[in-house]
Amino acid sequence: MKLRISGYDKESVVDGPGIRFVIFTQGCPHHCDGCHNPETWDFTGGREVEEDEVLEMIRSSRLIKGVTFSGGEPFAQPGPLASLGRRIKEMGLDIVTYTGYTFEEILKKSRRDQDIRDLLEVSDLLVDGRYIREERDLSLAFRGSRNQRVIKVAESLNAGKVIEAEF
Ligand code: SF4
Question: 29 C-alpha to center of ligand 1: Å?
Fold first, then answer.
């Protein structure tokens, strides 16, 4: 399956716990004021890559704890990312997914879109919500503004309410 990306970072320590391979997806509908990656907004920008090409790069990154799907908006490409995510999990790596939607919005969308449900379920942590410039806080781990949450996905789905991870 093909995925549209703007780029990747082979070793990041700011996009989730531990050393992580980060995939910056291309295309974002949110257009947050103060977004650090406005070049990722255009849905026709970036470049298309095959799932196997991305997996090969991940396999060559030996120090990583997991993979992060970042923006752009990963939930704009839920099918390819859910498929990629399943194969990443088979490699023993965990997954952090960023989204400009809230957890509650994703949950609602997932009721009528199985790909969205699959991407949500393959994610160990979900960092949710748009970037809000007025709520910017540099002291937060793995997020830019106070409205955003780092959510434990499986625990939240089981409990029927948001359970946040603490760092
Ligand atoms: S959701 Fe993320 S990538 Fe999209 S506009 Fe907001 S900050 Fe930028």
Answer: 8
Overall pTM > 0.90? yes
Counting the structural domains of the chain, the total is 1
What is the rounded distance in angstroms from the CA atom of residue 46 to the CA atom of residue 143? 23
pLDDT at residue 122 in the model: 98
Per DSSP bridges, beta strands 149-152 and 94-98 are: unpaired
- The residue contributing the CA closest to ligand 1 atom 6 is 32
Name the closest-CA residue to atom 7, ligand 1: 35
pLDDT per residue as tens digits for the range 66-101: 999 998 999 999 999 999 999 999 999 999 999 999
Q: What is the CATH number of the domain that holds 127?
A: 3.20.20.70
Residue labelled with tokens 């196997």: 52
Is there a domain that residue 43 lies in?
Answer: yes
